[in-house]
Known about the structure:
By secondary structure, the chain is an alpha+beta fold.
Amino acid sequence: xxxxxxxxxxxxxxxxxxxxxxxxxxxxxxxxxxxxxxxxxxxxxxxxxxxxxxxxxxxxxxxxxxxxxxxxxxxxxxxxxxxxxxxxxxxxxxxxxxxxxxxxxxxxxxxxxxxxxxxxxxxxxx
Length: 126
C-alpha cells in the first residue's frame, strides 16, 4: 500500500488486535494475553523487516507508535484477518501452539491513515 501524498508520509503506526474474550470470558491471565500481542507484533516486524515503512518505524525507536485494539472473539479476529488479506494489508495472525488457537494479529507498520478505516469497528483493548 502506498504512503500518503505530497510532503512527509503520515505517522507510522503498528496496530495490534487482541481477543478480549481471552481475558474476560476464558479467564486467561493478563500477562499471557500481553505475551500473545508481543509475539504477533514481533512476528509482523520480522516478516516485513525489509519493508520501507518497517525500516522507518524501527529507525525511530523512541517514538514508535502502537495501537492495541480488542476483538470480541475468535470469529471477529478471523474475520478481520480475512478482510485485511482481501485489502492487501500485510499482517500476522498469531495462532498459539500447540493449542492452535488464534489469539491476536498485528499489522506491519503503516501510515495511520492508510489502515485506520479498516480498524474503526474495533475499540481500544481494555
